[in-house]
Amino acid sequence: VSRFEGVTMAPPDPILGVSEAFRADTNDLKLNLGVGAYRTEELQPYVLNVVKKAEKLMLERGENKEYLPIEGLAAFNKVTAELLFGADNSVIQEGRVATIQGLSGTGSLRLAAAFIHRYFPDAKALISSPTWGNHKNIFNDARVPWSEYRYYDPRTVGLDFDGMVADIKAAPDGSFVLLHGCAHNPTGIDPTPEQWEKIADVIQEKNHIPFFDVAYQGFASGSLDADAYSVRLFVRRGFELLVAQSYSKNLGLYAERIGAINVVCSSSDAGTRVKSQLKRLARPMYSNPPVHGARIVANVVGDPNLFNEWKQEMELMAGRIKNVRQRLYENLSEKDKSGKDWSFVLKQIGMFSYTGLHKAQSDHMTDKWHIYMTKDGRISLAGLSLSKCEYLADAIIDSFH
Ligand SMILES: Cc1ncc(COP(=O)(O)O)c(CNOCC(=O)O)c1O
User: Fold this and answer.
1) 39 - beta bridge partners?
2) Is any atom of ligand 1 closer than 6 Å to the C-beta of 215?
3) Using alpha carbons only, what angle is made at residue 84 by residues 70 and 145, rounded to the nearest 5 degrees?
4) Mutate to test the pocket of ligand 1, among 108, 135, 136, 185 (most ligand atoms within 8 A of CB)
């Protein structure tokens, strides 16, 4: 008897499934606002110039393909922690950060979740409502129980700060609070500096452990330092914490699967022990990480000229998305006679806008206008060009009728 006969069909991924449907659409008006991947004004994928230059250097150098150590490329681990915390940060100087190169943001989050399950079996994870769709899958598969904290307020299309704080306060002491470092996905709504201070207060009061997910450093505002504000605030306040990093967006290395998990510990000795246990978890999971993306990051950040050019390209990408936000806001405000306040399109940060559209409306946008977006009403502005803003505005307004 066939053993696999009984295997049922898995549902399409809420985010990546949208791109599959987009590819199947033959209408040339079609617009993919689903996946969070940067596109140029011509709606083409973008390989950064600094990546091409770094790869040319690497090819000329003729490097080998030997296995990396379990923890990854040392040069990468050094620069990734320095980028995140700042090279002059005391946690770096005192050697208190355990950094492991991960399989991009997802793999880094998964390794951290495995660590939490192994060493804090009774702890819960607290995730924002809504959050990036894969967070729940990652904690479920790592067998880390989770619950949600309120985050998005549909009435104000803003942050439900009081609800967030109340839910974090109500959770069992010592929970792991998953926080988006910048450019919250899918809402595009970030706490203000004052609100981050209060969030730190309640986390401190409850002995919770901050767990940052930083997938957009430098890509959200265009500044690496500005986008690391929340992480550096918590470090300054003396927290032990975890931070998952990704270079998918800010360096456009999506398919290279390059990221890291960083654990800030209270002593360098603890850091050494934590790093050894992360390695022990990584070994049976994937043994050791891919070298190419790690070398690109190390080469770009390690060379002052390339590093500066990278910062300029990040500002360009962030700038294009800001221009698209502005144009979409103008088109919506001009065309919509309902008096609806569209200013949330301008207030949100990063590559997404959380429109508040219901599933029926997003289905209508797809069926009638061939516009593809996730069912939660999130649109990726990175997939939108200035020339297509009017078309999108017409479709959004039409979806309310
Ligand atoms: C918050 C967050 N964490 C982590 C990640 C992990 O990305 P990666 O594994 O590519 O580093 C992502 C990437 N999102 O994917 C695009 C989308 O939402 O459409 C992310 O948004």
Assistant:
1) 45
2) yes
3) 65
4) 185
SS3 73: coil
Beta bridge partners of 210: 177
Amino acid at 389: C
Model pTM above 0.90: yes
What is the chain's Cα-based Rg? 21
Rounded Cα gap, residues 26 and 389, in angstroms: 21
Is 101's pLDDT higher than 90? yes
Angle between the 389-398 and 304-335 helix axes, to the nearest 10 degrees?
Answer: 40
Please tell me if the CB atom of residue 377 comes closer than 6 angstroms to any atom of ligand 1: no
Q: Quote the DSSP letter at residue 172.
A: P
Work out the number of other CB atoms within 10 angstroms of the CB of residue 167.
Answer: 20
**Which protein residue has the closest C-alpha to ligand 1 atom 12?**
215
Report the catalytic residues.
132, 213, 249
ipTM score:
0.98
User: Which residue type does 169 have?
Assistant: K
Which residues are within 8 A (CB) of 70 and not within 5 positions of it... i.e. 6 or more apart?
100, 279, 282, 283, 287, 288
pLDDT tops 90 at residue 12: no
Output the residue whose Cα is nearest ligand 1's atom 16. Answer: 36
Distance 388 CA to ligand 1 centre (A): 25
| Greatest distance between any 2 Cα atoms in the chain | 65
The reported pLDDT for the residue numbered 307 is 98
Would the CB of 376 count as within 6 Å of ligand 1?
no
pLDDT of res. 13:
85
User: Range with the lowest mean pLDDT among 11-15, 79-83, 185-189, 205-209?
Assistant: 11-15
Task: Burial-class residue 161 by CB neighbours within 10 Å (0-12, 13-18, 19+).
Answer: middle
Q: Ligand 1: which residue has its CA nearest to atom 21?
A: 185
Whether the CB of 293 sits within 6 Å of ligand 1: no
- The DSSP symbol for 10 reads P
Q: Report whether 182 contacts 220 (CB < 8 A).
A: yes
Residues ≥6 apart with Cβ < 8 Å to 277: 115, 118, 119
> Tell me, what's the pLDDT at 317?
96
Task: List the residue whose alpha carbon is closest to atom 14 of ligand 1.
Answer: 36
